[in-house]
Amino acid sequence: MYSLVGIPYAFSWAVKDPAGSSWSTTSNVLSTSSSWSFSASYPSSFSGASLNLPGAYSANVSETIPTSTPNVVTGSFTVGITDSVTYQRTYPVRIQAGGYLPTDTVNITITRSGDSIQSFFSSRTPDTNGLVTTSWQTLPGTATGIYTVSVVGKTTPPKSVPDAQQFVVYPTNITTTAFGSGKNALEKSEIQAFRFNATYLNGLSATQGSSTIRLTEPDGSTMHLATASYNSSLGRFSAAFTVPLSGETGAWVATIDAQSFNDPYGNGGPLLPETVTFNVLPATLSVALFSSNKVFSVGDALTVQATIVTPGGTNFTQGTVQAVMTLSGQHVGTPLSLTYDPTRGEWIGNYKVAPSDPSGTWLVTVTASDNYGNTGQSSVIDTITVPSGQSSTSLLWSYLVIVLLVAGLGFTILITRKRGLTRREVKLDIQAIKSQADKVKSDDFLQSIQEQLKRRKQQMGLEKPNHD
Amino acid sequence: MTRSIAVHSYKGGTGKTTLTANIAVALALKGRRVGIMDMDLEGPGLHVFFDVDPSQVRFTMNDVLAGIAAPEAATIRLSEKMGFNHGEIYYCPASTRVAEIMRTLKTGYEVDMFENAVKRLQEHFGLHYLFIDTHPGIQHDTLLALGVCDHQVLVSRIDQQDIFGTGVMIEVSTAFEKPIHLILNLIPPRVREAEVSKFARALSSHFAVDMAGWVPFSEEVIGSLSRSVLTLKTPKDPIAARFRALAERVETFA
Questions:
Q1: pLDDT digits (tens, 9 = 90+) for A56-90
Q2: Which of residues 9-68 of B touch A (CB under 8 A)?
Q3: Which residues on chain A are in Cβ contact (under 8 Å) with B110?
Q4: What pTM does this model have?
Q5: Could you tell me the domains of chain A?
Q6: Domains and CATH numbers, chain B
Q7: What are the angstrom distances between the C-alpha of B190 and each of A412, B187, B211, B239?
Q8: Which residues does chain B have within 8 Å of residue A460's beta carbon, measured at their own beta carbons?
Q9: Is the pLDDT of residue A347 over 50?
């Protein structure tokens, strides 16, 4: 048995630099097993060698002991004067070249298609080792393509291989973060706001460009688009989208699709889509009625006028609007259909007071609805007078009205100012105040406000634990 | 502790804005950091009191509510202009441009935009008090503002319509479960203090609200044409003393 351990070996190394000069060294090693490795460092192990020349370096290793075997291993490596040969915009191009006299003044220039980059000109004094270092910061708008960087000294003798090299600049990726919606829930016709941050790879915020935000209804197939652009006041990208009255209620998904964001220079992003979900509720239509503030008699036309506005503030123009008249909870006549008058922006209907109608204060309730589940309601009172004997019930109603008035007076507190500028009585009619306030309180209008405040309170409660 | 106080009235012309400006300045003169937000988006008027040229205003509350500007960007520090040594006045104007007023009225605003603005201003400027001057009446946007603030101050004249509307306003405002304080303003000169006191007690009792105080009608206030703040310009005027008393009352708001 032969041992493969401890056998003396000798190798000679040769490295040829880009100028064609050869640099050599030797290695004397003892085998440690049937195979082993060893190395030599260039240029430190090669007397007189350097990495001052850019380009391809070739290397070969020949065995000299115990046998003479040339080129047992060959290889190569490349030396550049930039830290990469490809860059995405916004990354810095780091430049380093060696072999200059420490007292020299070295000019570094970058050209593209033969034209110098005006924004970059660097003049440097080498360090004590003859190294020159600088960098060029690429921007989101830096032109893409092939660039050449050249380093030339004034007093250093010209190099056999000049310090010149090409590199390529590509568009960069944009990352979108903190994508969010203004409201977690909103009613149809309201405006949903979207916001997000866009940053380049080096962390710089993007301030130009736009992105399409895709909105998907709960059915998963109906899509809408909104465009986000930079809002300098917010310092973020923002978009606004009005949820249509015909939109479906439920969870909507807003998506920034991959590569849907583009800046004016051709940089794009994000690499992966980002989504945010919000809830769409039916629109509570705000119905404002105009009280005629007069007394109607038999034969008079009671005009019901209503302005109906969506939560988003636009006029409600398409749907069904009906007015129902009641007296003490009893229906009067048949429901009255209102039609939209585009010139006035109002829904209008007329009811002719009939001799058989009951006399008294009618409550006119207008209900608006459409095919998409949006509804609204409001009421107003109108006083109708029907002469005695015309209606079998009119006398009874009159008695009721009188009884109510007397009861109302019982709740009236009078506070009289006997001395005063106006010499009038200031009445504190508690009953009338409460009655008026109850009307406001029972209106969808106030309930909608309370709902909004309640939702907001709940949101704040949910957000608090995550607040950073 | 910071408090947001909505100042409101059922009808216009109650002196609500005058009271707001004077109480705010009285508090600032006591060294407090006070914010004033003009939420009378239909008829802003605070800029006249503070002598702020609307054409020099870059952003307004209308922009804040539309998400166009940050609240602090729409804030003007008036302390130096008013010559304060310790206190601060930060003023958020509303737009006086008709097109912007119409835009805001048409679109309304989101409750979270308003609430965020209130919180942001309180935090950013370290405010002790933030007064919100609202538009009179029972309106959607105004009620939202009342619902968001910590306290509601209702201003009324002793006038049949005004008292009736204020009563309705109180009844409606109770739905928000926020403390309500009442101020009677522009008390006619020939009405005796005892009578006002009696009437105020009756109101306070009937509606179970805090009667913060009352302020007599003043030729001095009317004569200033809303162009100056009395507590600053003529601090020795008896009405200025009334405003200071109200400011002290505000400091007791829990």
A1: 999 999 999 999 999 999 999 999 999 999 999 99
A2: 59, 63, 67-68
A3: 182-183, 193
A4: 0.50
A5: 8-79 (no CATH), 100-170 (2.60.40), 176-281 (2.60.40.1930), 286-401 (2.60.40.10), 411-462 (no CATH)
A6: 3-154+225-250 (3.40.50.300)
A7: 26, 8, 21, 16
A8: 115
A9: yes
